[in-house]
Amino acid sequence: MDAAGDARPDTELLAAALAGSGEAFGAFYRRHARRITAFHLARTSEAQDAADLTAETFAAALESLDRYDPLRGEPVAWLFGIARHRLLALHRRGAVEDRARRRMGMARLELDDAALDQVESAAGAELIRVELREGFDALPPDQRDAVALRILLDHDYAEVAAASGVSEAVVRKRVSRGLSTLRARLAGRTPS
Amino acid sequence: MTDFFADLERQLTAATVDRPRRMRRARARRGAALAAVLLAIVAGGAGLATAVSGDGTGTRGTPAAPDVTQRARTAPAPAVAAAPPVDDARTLNRFVTAVLSATSRPGMARGVANQLQRSGARIGNVTNAADQTQAETIVTYAPGHASDAALVAQHLYDDARRRAPVVRPATTSERAVAGAEAAVIVLAGAQVLRTP
Question: ipTM score here?
Fold first, then answer.
């Protein structure tokens, strides 16, 4: 599931959704569902709670579409603000709220074991993707370039060396250090 | 096996299509509740005034009190019936909508403008857009008017094709053509979304 089918920016998707386009809100949901689920799973450790919180987050977003103001920030920041409120409500009440879903006419989705595994896998993969992306961005520029050229673009060491103006040995060292940093970052990730 | 992400997407997609109707009903309910409370307060105040002034059927002071309570209890029913539904025409009338012809087909912008005017919109400039090669109708908005644009788009929603026009921020040149008072600008393309 991805949002590749709709390249419109989030602001346009929300505006179209406000006009009644289910397709637009579906695309907005596909684009952010896994990040929101990962956010909740990392803080609740329960796949069913994470699923309920994800559903409640998007239902609340749908309900308050007309309160989103593009001048006050990106839609994704607004969405995560809603997610944080739903999470705080869980901590306050000891149970996931379902008011937004009820007002939007959405039934609670009971998950079987396979679906719970799916939620955990998807959220876990998203966490790893985010960690990798952030870790990659945090690498020193020479290591980042070396890892990108060698690992992501599959150039051989000689080509990377030529492109970077350094020896193959230096490139190998940069790639090695960059990958070590990424591995350490993933290993240090708090299990959820 | 259930697919949580796909199931939730189906729920959300359906809820989005149904959202305008649900929100109208919720607003009507809130309006009715508010009207009921206001009426109860007014009835209570009037009753109290009557009791204090002694103009009512009871004597001054305590004998009038049960009458006040009774009025307050019975007040909500007429208020519910009298509460007006949310009026789209009045809402569309809050801001100015300009319509620019983004196609060389004659009469398209005027047709859309007439359609929106019948729905209660305040129409501003109706003129040609700089680009007149557009197939689809697009709704754009000045800063702070995204939800107004969405409301206009809702009136241009194509029921048959289940498609709303694209909504996006207006460019500087579009705003210059539409005029400074225009909060929402409809760029009428060659394909009409909803038959007037």
Answer: 0.76
